[in-house]
Design brief:
Strand content: over 45%
Distance between the termini: 38 Å
Number of strands: 12
Shape: globular
Order of helices and strands: HEEEEEEEEEEEE
Number of helices: 1
Amino acid sequence: LIKKWFSEVNADGNNLVGVQNIQYDLSTATTALDFANDELQEISIVADTTFTCTGYVAGKSKSIKITTDATLRTLTFPAAWRFVGPKPIDQAASKIGMLTITSYTAAEAGIVAAYAVEQ
């Protein structure tokens, strides 16, 4: 029964991959986004977080649900990403944010991102 719901669990316990097409991460300082992985990703932020990204492929998008713990957390993104609207610098305590990234080229400079957080 467990195999039916989980296709992979990392030995370090931080990633669950293939859970209904959602990748779940617990961020402690750096969160890696990879266009080769599922399109939906959930991240629980428990530290100031720097986002990194790999596997840029033109025409692919990812949606990332970001949940903060009970502390305001600083967010840092790759410098070449272009944000539609303000580029976030932090996320308030106990909030849910949505980050959507679309790769228009196979390089970091081809990313267009949009971010919103609950009020």
